[in-house]
Write a structure and sequence with these properties.
Layout: H1 2-32, H2 56-81
Length: about 80
């Protein structure tokens, strides 16, 4: 009897969790899809793309990626020899 009650409770809790998650997602996506208020700036309906300079952090990460790719190539070459 307790196993049946446990299973039923789990199914109900799972269903409620699913519905709650679905409602929250609908609310978040509905809010995210609303257009921005650009009337004060006098711009078109679509927001203009703005070029953002690459920061030093991104440049440093790109350097680390190149080092890792070089290390990976060396390891692959060593692996192919074996």
């Amino acid at each position: 009897m307790t196993v049946t009650v446990t299973i039923i409770t789990a199914l109900i809790a799972g269903g409620i969790s699913f519905l709650l998650g679905w409602v929250v997602c609908k609310a978040v996506f509905a809010q995210a899809s609303e257009p921005l208020d650009n009337d004060a700036a006098g711009q078109d309906e679509k927001a203009a793309l703005v070029a953002v300079p690459v920061s030093a952090d991104v440049t440093g990460l790109q350097g680390q990626i190149q080092v890792l790719q070089h290390d990976k190539a060396k390891l692959n070459a060593k692996n192919s020899r074996y």
